[in-house]
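S.,

Sequence below, as promised.
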Amino acid sequence: MGTDRDWKRWGATDPYFGVCSQGRFHTNAMTAESRAEFFASGEAHIARIWRDIGNVAGVEFSPGSALDFGCGVGRLVIPLARRTRRVTGVDISPSMLAEAERNCSVAGISNTEFLESDDGMTRVQGSFDLVHSYLVLQHIPWGRGRKILQTLADRVAPNGFLAVQILTGDTSKPVIRSMVKLRYVFPPANWARNLLRGRSMLEPAMQLHTYDLDLVREDLERRDFVCAQVDEHWQGFRNTFLYARRPA
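The prediction came back faster than expected:
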């Protein structure tokens, strides 16, 4: 999903798996139970974000508005909308956005809007108390993602927070990473892997990219943000939740 084309393909053919790449979330495998699990995981994630920001800020977090970059099918927009007055979800995939609107309607959520995204967020109006992104930037190469992060930071209102998840380190062996990256630039390598795993030959590779955390923080601190982070380990990577507050 390192390209917009691949992301749009996931959105049109297998949107829930595109958001959470576990077999039970494939379109042809979804059940009522797995669907409930899918949305419960979104509620758990947003509850975690609220706790982390509360710990960072030292006060109860109660934003009035939120922007979710890479909102997919609305898994995180729904719990955000239950905690704020308005939420804007942006995504590169029109199919994802249409599904997100349907999911909000089913959930009785009406304080949302959905917009197609571009790197400059040109369709998005105004600023937000919370600008959030999860499981998205890791699929965007570092050079492009760095610029997107700066654009997202510029949408944070005074006293607001940027809360994003990025991969900031790779603990796998260099030869393994080289083989993985080969699939991104040499399609036959990805086709062969798909066939060996019993998948559709032309299924896109889910690209994973790491970010330079020091440079990300420098970009934010030049904008006067105060940064904090929580680091975890995930599938051979250092996984960083970055919380940056814009002063009043």
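Residues 32-57 form the longest helix (26 residues).

Coffee later?
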